[in-house]
Design goal:
Blueprint: E1 5-10, H1 14-26, E2 30-36, H2 40-49, E3 53-54, H3 58-62, E4 67-70, H4 74-86, E5 90-93, H5 101-114, E6 118-120, H6 128-140, E7 143-151, H7 164-174, H8 176-187, E8 190-198, E9 204-210, E10 215-221, E11 230-237, E12 240-243, H9 251-268, H10 277-294
Helix pairs in contact: 1-9, 4-5, 5-10, 8-10
């Protein structure tokens, strides 16, 4: 790009401070132009650390940027993002993209109508090893099943343990989008939820059916006192067993790779991507089906 993309950041919580703000400020294709948050003092702290301005209102932010990055709860994002895309702004969206399917569909329709670029923060998908692993699986084919575990104590202690929306939605809302996205990408589109159970301690056990006949399982909790967190995925079939060997990668490194794609999309006028708004809507529908089957 001849000029840096001016991006406004909505939100000033731990994830915005650790990932969004430094990523946008340091990337050669973007600049962190301005920050808006419901707590002005928090927005000012983030903005000052990265040489950005503070917007007094969301509308003020929209008037200064080419794109908007959201680091807010899904219920907040869903409405604001619709306003952003209607104003012609490209968007980087948190997962899940909305609190429910109806809101997600409204947001997706707005993005597609506005013909703006969109990427969802399925951050694991932007790691080099994940991309190479998925490419290899697709090239070989013949996978019959797989599974993923994500166990952490993130809601017991730490910077995200005081997040109301994470406590309300639990593991399914927070890490569920990553789990569903990776299993879907590895084994083919998820077509149904065969079984789903949530324990009183928010331990999820889920069985998915995939297009083409494969099946997979998911185990998730953010209330297990393990350090470091357990996060693994594997598939198996006629060519044996393949597990994704993940290395510890800071979130900002994966966000930088996302920004590479985001800037390239805008520079080339592209609005389609494996992790665009369409992907976000598909994952939202699967999560909703999980809740239905679990009776939650």
């Amino acid at each position: 790009m001849d000029e840096q993309l001016r991006v406004g950041l909505v939100g000033a919580g731990p994830w915005a401070r650790r990932v969004h703000a430094p990523g946008l400020a340091d990337h050669p294709g973007t600049s962190l132009a301005t920050v808006w948050a419901r707590r002005p003092e928090a927005a000012a702290e983030v903005a000052e650390a990265h040489g950005a301005s503070v917007s007094a209102t969301f509308d003020e932010l929209l008037g200064q940027v080419d794109a908007v990055a959201f680091a807010v709860p899904p219920a907040v994002q869903a409405g604001l993002a619709v306003d952003a895309v209607k104003a012609g702004k490209h968007v980087i969206l948190e997962k899940p993209i909305a609190p429910d399917v109806e809101s997600a569909e409204r947001l997706a329709e707005a993005v597609l109508t506005a013909e703006v670029a969109s990427l969802v923060m399925f951050t694991l998908r932007y790691a080099v090893e994940t991309r190479e692993w998925l490419d290899d699986l697709a090239a070989v084919g013949g996978w019959a099943g797989g599974g993923m575990r994500w166990l952490s104590g993130a809601l017991l202690d730490g910077p995200y343990s005081v997040s109301p929306w994470r406590h309300d939605g639990g593991a399914l809302a927070d890490v569920g989008p990553h789990v569903v996205d990776l299993l879907d990408a590895a084994l083919g589109p998820i077509t149904d939820v065969v079984a789903a159970h949530r324990s009183p301690q928010d331990l999820w056990q889920i069985v998915f059916a995939h297009e083409g006949g494969a099946s997979s399982t998911a185990t998730m909790s953010m209330r297990v006192p393990v350090e470091p967190a357990v996060s693994d995925i594997s598939v198996y079939g006629e060519h044996g067993y393949r597990a994704l060997a993940r290395r510890p990668v800071p979130g900002v490194e994966r966000f930088t790779a996302l920004l590479d794609d985001f800037a390239a999309m805008i520079a080339t006028g592209t609005t389609t991507h494996p992790c665009d708004i369409r992907r976000g809507l598909h994952i939202q529908r699967v999560l909703d089906r999980v809740l239905q089957v679990a009776g939650a």
